[in-house]
Amino acid sequence: MTCVPRLHRCCGRRILRIRWACLRRSLAPIRVVWAKRPPSVTPLVAMRAAAHRDSIARQWANDFADVFGCGLWEYAHALERWDDASWATTATYLRFMSQFPDSHVLRKYGMHVARDAQRRATELHADLWRCSDPIEVQPRLIAWDMGLKVHGHNPGTSADLTVATLFAFRCT
User: What is the CATH number of domain 65-171?
Assistant: First the structure.
């Protein structure tokens, strides 16, 4: 389980410069405007600087504490309770959505929209854990999902954290 947090540490400045040069060469025909020199900081330093405003950056900065903490706990307990990976994944997604505002929604639509999505996810998460059969909550989950899609709200950060949790679970 320690391999994932160490992943970001392997990208030292030398490797970063090599990757930067390869990326510049591969994207040159696209006419992307590049800085005259490679970044002066490592990816980890950049992630730490953005951690206060971006949930994915926070994971890199804190050794994926949310993924290995509440994410794995939620997934394992939901899987044990319902013996269904789909419902365990749903519970994990709702847990991330209810724990903090989705930083993708926050960035695109503001705090009010992000907090509203967080509030609704908190309600659905509680409903899911209260029910005896998750199918009881499915119509409300589908209605909420449709509402998010109609308004173009995509809680992508929570989805990314859920996928990272599933990956960590499979690796353990």
Answer: 1.10.4200.10
The 3-class SS string of the chain reads: CCHHHHHHHHCCHHHHHHHHHHHHHHHHHHCCCCCCCCCCCCHHHHHHHHCCCCHHHHHHHCCCHHHHHHHHHHHHHHHHHHCCHHHHHHHHHHHHHHHCCCHHHHHHHCHHHHHHHHHHHHHHHHHHHHCCCHHHCHHHHHHHHHHHHHCCCCCHHHHHHHHHHHHHHHHC
Q: And the tokens for 58?
A: 């926070």
CA nearest to 100, candidates 73, 66, 149? 66
Rounded distance, CA 104 to CA 84, Å? 28
pLDDT digits (tens, 9 = 90+) for 74-98: 999 999 999 999 999 999 999 999 9
Q: How many angstroms separate the CA atoms of 79 and 87, rounded? A: 7
Beta-carbon contacts of residue 155 (< 8 Å; ≥ 6 apart): 97, 102, 104, 105, 117, 121, 148
